[in-house]
Amino acid sequence: MDIQVLPLPAEKMKQKAQDETKLSFGRQFTDRMLLVEWKADQGWCDARIQPYAPFVLDPSCLVFHYAQEIFEGLKAYKWADGRIALFRPEMNARRFNQSADRLCMPDVPEELFLGGIEKLLSLEKEWIPGAPGTSLYIRPAMIAVEPVLGVKPSSHYYFFVILSPVGAYYSAGFNPVSIMVEDHYVRAVPGGTGEAKTGGNYASSLKGALEAKNKGYDQVLWLDGREQRYVEEVGSMNMFFVYGDTIVTAAMNGSILSGITRDSILKLAVSLGYRAEERSIEINELMDDIRGGKVTEAFGSGTAAVVSPVGKLCFKDEVVHLSGGTVGAITQKLYDTLTGIQTGKIKDEFGWVRFV
Ligand code: COI
């Protein structure tokens, strides 16, 4: 599909951050965005790259009332030789369409998803930061824009992509975060939308996250929605627990997001000589294993979070510490290897990198 490039007037061009090492997460956006529409009688149409600008939408649009929305997150890296690298972007394209299917939205052809991102990046490449730990975060999303109050799948959608130069997701940077296990609210239920990357999952997590923050914790670890017994995920990341030389994460069960970083960590760990297990993790057993010293480290994984060490966990008012409050050796190794492949410092044996 042809993507039209609209002119960027000089007055719409923005100032880039003076000091890349101070970039936070998702507060600044580049000059241009991709916008493609889908109409029931035309399919995908009007693909354009235009100056970054607010949408003017009818207040009755379906997305505002019934949350028919999905999104993705991936990153572009500037390599030392000047090349621009994406990390497993076809996995994002695939997951986007799985989310679309769950939310009754149209499939975005992979060549439109990836081709649109690559064309936008080639115009915005000056925005990719180069300082260690920085990247250009890519946020594709789709929203239902039909103006109607009846609950139904929309007949009109916007698929759009915006770009944001970012540093670490957590203000702590690559330092241990603290996590509270949520034993009241739930994030997802069997048969629900937990596996889809849809805004509603994040909106429903806010209350628990706020209460945890008020108690001094950075994040919430969600348990399963049926029995509140089994570890699921942290919303912004999948969780891993390190037992000696084995990394353990919750098995996919329909309500956990199928993280691309999660999958990469599982494969990397095996290639580095560790063992990797996907299984159910019962919270009381996990607490016993932490108390008894069997769990030596814990970390989360995600596109935004990368690999984030966890230093403290609280469940039902009991606080346990992990990795002596520092970054564990296996966590560090996985972080270094993953980011090394993403930024071209370590050879990509997996064929994960795609150049723009
Ligand atoms: C990502 O890691 O890309 C996400 O979409 C998580 C979000 C909470 C920033």
TrEMBL record:
A GO MF annotation of the entry reads: L-leucine-2-oxoglutarate transaminase activity
Q: Where N6-(pyridoxal phosphate)lysine occurs along the chain?
A: 197
What keywords sit in the KW lines? Amino-acid biosynthesis, Aminotransferase, Branched-chain amino acid biosynthesis, Pyridoxal phosphate, Transferase
Question: Organism's domain of life?
Answer: Bacteria
Do you know which InterPro entries this protein is assigned to?
A: Aminotrans_IV, Aminotrans_IV_CS, Aminotransferase-like, B_amino_transII, BCAT-like_C, BCAT-like_N, BCAT_family
What enzyme class is recorded for this protein?
transferase
Catalytic activity line of the entry: L-leucine + 2-oxoglutarate = 4-methyl-2-oxopentanoate + L-glutamate; L-isoleucine + 2-oxoglutarate = (S)-3-methyl-2-oxopentanoate + L-glutamate; L-valine + 2-oxoglutarate = 3-methyl-2-oxobutanoate + L-glutamate
What CDD domains does the database record attribute to this sequence? Answer: BCAT_beta_family
Pathway annotation from the record: Amino-acid biosynthesis; L-isoleucine biosynthesis; L-isoleucine from 2-oxobutanoate: step 4/4; Amino-acid biosynthesis; L-leucine biosynthesis; L-leucine from 3-methyl-2-oxobutanoate: step 4/4; Amino-acid biosynthesis; L-valine biosynthesis; L-valine from pyruvate: step 4/4
The EC number(s) attached to this protein equal 2.6.1.42
Q: Output the GO biological process annotations, alphabetical, semicolon-separated.
A: isoleucine biosynthetic process; L-leucine biosynthetic process; L-valine biosynthetic process
> Which one Pfam family would you cite for this protein?
Aminotran_4
What is its cofactor? pyridoxal 5'-phosphate
Which family does the UniProt entry place this protein in? Belongs to the class-IV pyridoxal-phosphate-dependent aminotransferase family.
Q: What is this protein called?
A: Branched-chain-amino-acid aminotransferase
